[in-house]
Amino acid sequence: MNDETMGQEDAAQDAEACAEALESLDRISLDEIAFDDSGVDVQDGPETEAQSDDQDADDVEPAEDEAGHEDTESEAGNQPESDTGEETVLLDSLPAEDSLTRELPGLGSAPAVDETIAMGDIPLPSVPSAREAEVRHRKMSPKRRNLMVAGVVAVALVAGGAGYTAWNGYQQEQAAVAAANAHTMMSVQIGVHAAGLDCSTGSKIPVQVSGQDSDGSSVSETLYVDEHGRGIKLLPGDYTFSIAASPIAADGTIYTVPTTKAQVTVKSDGQDLSAQATFKLKVPSADTVTDDQIDAAAKYAEEGGVNSAAVAKVLQQAATARRDAATNAVSSRKAQAARDADARHKATDLYQLDIPVEWYGKVATWQNGSTLCIYLAGDTSTPLVTLVTVRDGESFTPDEGDAVLGAANLGNGYTVYASGPVYPYVVPQTINGRTQNPVSTYPMDTAIELVELTTGNRYTYSQIKNVLVGKDGKADAATKLECDYLAQILLPSIKAQD
């Protein structure tokens, strides 16, 4: 037998073994995979013609192939026949002694090999040439090729089915987790700003929550958060947050309730919603807090803002006391301001005016008819300004050493002239001893006070002395400074008498 014939026999035997294994696999998966009978019958038809063509091409018919096929048919006599007429041997139907390691037909028993034989002594299998591969492919019957393809498809389907089962299981697991989360309360945090609030000693902030949870149920409830915005627990869903009322700080502080609302979506536990929901609670003037605001804050504090109704009552009393104290203080200030305004208010038979607030308590007045003099308290010889009434069209000449500091027309035929020393100039010169005819000399503290009163504290004595007056002794800048100030604080208050 030549090499080519032996190669063909080997190929036939290899194909027979593969076909048997695949047929077994095909038999195992028949319950899960249905083949189209018509497709197999069509392949059976031209089998004889294909075999005839193979014989013509090679003129060699491996006897072992037919013999092996007949032996298989005789051994599987009790097995059910497939639609194709081929008999399939199940692996578990083989006798115990007939295993997958049985001798292949025609090969006989393998000779015993000495373990000491070197690997280099073992001949390596040769790679079939392109011609031999073509011969093997052509000699395989269409039916066996179909069975081999069916086996591969079966394996792919089984593997794909396993993958689909795993993916479907994963999807079901994720759906179960999502369903469980949809019925789990989630803790969320919002942003709040309330100066001075410590919820461990005061009440918590009531937050009105409305919306719909993941079950489709409507939600409308009041939850409470601390000064850090923590304390809200909700099912996943879409909600609207707003501040229901003011908390009460330990010192009785009541806050202005913001009117803003925030739309949020709760998705997960520990979610920070401060970017979507932040509320600023400002501290108003305590005297403006109303009884209704205090009562609302106390109501929510009792319902959940504090641990007990007794604590809520204590906080309510603190808020009321704080408001009342502020109201009393404001009332006292207003009463004092009214008394001060009355004391500052001066009147003559032709005009009335108000002593500047900056001067009040530091000056006194004397009056003679329509002439009014404002002087340094406790020193009648140190007048700040003297007001003299002159009929319209008449001239006015101030006393020696004084300058005209301003005038106010009453509109009733009279004009009031304001005159006096230019203290921002006179005082520094007098202290330095440079004034030739000083009105008087002044102690340093008096000099500083006179400069402050006539300039409204806009300049210090040192600035007046070193900058506005300087060593040249010119009074223009100092005079203008005093005139401007009096024009702002005194002259506008001079009005004709009713």
Describe it for me?
This protein is α+β, with helices and mostly antiparallel strands and about 500 residues long. The chain is built from 12 helices and 17 strands. It has helices spanning about 5-30, 35-45, 45-60, 65-75, 130-140, 140-180, 290-305, 310-345, 425-430, 445-455, 460-470, 475-490, and strands at about 185-190, 190-195, 205-215, 220-225, 230-235, 235-245, 260-265, 270, 280, 345, 350-355, 365-370, 370-375, 385-390, 405-410, 415-420, 495. The chain has a 5-stranded antiparallel β-sheet. Helix 9 (about 425-430) packs antiparallel against helix 10 (about 445-455) and helix 9 crosses helix 11 (about 460-470). The radius of gyration is 57 Å and the shape is elongated.
What are the salient characteristics of this protein?
498 residues, alpha+beta, 5-stranded antiparallel beta sheet, 4-stranded antiparallel beta sheet, 17 strands, 41% helix
In short:
By secondary structure, this protein is α+β, with helices and mostly antiparallel strands.
Ordered list of secondary-structure elements with their pairings:
Elements: H1 3-28, H2 37-44, H3 47-58, H4 63-75, H5 130-139, H6 142-182, E1 186-189, E2 191-194, E3 205-213, E4 218-225, E5 230-234, E6 237-243, E7 262-266, E8 271-272, E9 278-281, H7 291-305, H8 309-344, E10 345-347, E11 351-354, E12 363-368, E13 371-376, E14 383-391, E15 403-409, E16 414-420, H9 423-432, H10 444-455, H11 461-469, H12 476-489, E17 495-496
Parallel strand pairs: 1-8, 2-9
Antiparallel strand pairs: 1-5, 3-4, 3-6, 6-7, 10-11, 11-17, 12-13, 13-14, 14-16, 15-16
